[in-house]
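Notes, p. 3: input format for complexes.
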Amino acid sequence: MTEAVIRAEDVAMRFGTNTVFQDVSFEVRRGEIFVILGGSGCGKSTLLKLLIGLMPPSAGRIAVLEEEIARLAGQARRDLLRRIGVMWQSGALLGSLNLLENVMLPIEAHTALPDDARALVAGSKLGLVGLGDATTRLPAEISGGMVKRAGIARAMALDPEILFLDEPSAGLDPITSAGLDELILSLARETGTTFVVVTHELQSILAIGDRCIMLDKEARGMIAEGDPKRLKEESTHPTVRAFFHREAL
Ligand SMILES: Nc1ncnc2c1ncn2[C@@H]1O[C@H](COP(=O)(O)OP(=O)(O)OP(=O)(O)O)[C@@H](O)[C@H]1O
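Output follows (249 residues plus adenosine-5'-triphosphate):
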């Protein structure tokens, strides 16, 4: 079986007396597109924060690229974070910098490459996401879909082994959203990057997800794991069925 790049074992997260989830265990395998899904407030963003080490779990263990991310500090932590990329919902571009300069930022921060080489790398990442002709545009001058693409280019600037995407289709119309799904699929195929995507967009989940887990607020944990297309056909769990068949309800 393909190597696991993330292993979550019996993970729980509590804020005070509020248990968001517990007993969450799963693996993400190298090269797959892994989707974290579930309704509002079930803890998708919280789980994403645990996976990238922004906070430690209340219980359990999360290993990312064989390292227990919550326990790392200093250089070891920086070294691991360099191997992963994150795109937040907004795309998080700096408005005063053009797209090329935005993508150059992480390269400047983490490598000693000279200016022209940095620009070359940043330009090639923008080319990968279909923005090769827009490198001198400012974020305010481009569409919402292009902002997301630029955010992905920036998250890929350092050739991450795992790319985390937080609600990539949020705020996009269905056609733009479908275009973004195609981009994610082609990047996964061409670069071999592992994708972990947080979303509740059913069309996206079915279009891009190799495997998924579904979190549930009432159950305070995972209620499904597997290939989303198979879950849609085969799951007998009422909440899972309602989610995958909601168009028909
Ligand atoms: N820093 C925090 N302190 C206290 N409670 C928090 C904190 N972060 C999240 N929560 C709680 O955890 C629960 C899950 O929130 P989270 O944002 O992870 O859900 P979500 O599935 O991402 O929701 P949405 O799809 O609406 O973004 C909520 O009850 C929220 O109030």
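The pocket of adenosine-5'-triphosphate is lined by residues 15, 18, 20, 38, 40-46 (CB under 6 Å).
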